[in-house]
Prior knowledge:
Low-confidence stretches: none
Shape: extended
Mean pLDDT: 90
Radius of gyration: 16 Å
Amino acid sequence: MKRIKMKKHEIKPETCLIEAINKIEDYIEQTTGQRPTHREIADALSRFFVLKEIGEFIEMSRQQDLTQKESDT
């Protein structure tokens, strides 16, 4: 796996993140007829409403996980 050096820290994308980006690329290609550039994907993912939606989804998923763990005990 390729390591990416950033200003703040070094990251190593996990397979699940790479697969998610591939899904975005495939979806955009299917809907527009053209594969998006990495810059286009980065710009889209950095928009406030996308960040807000991702944040809300992660919070909801974490809450569901906690609720599931509590019901399992």
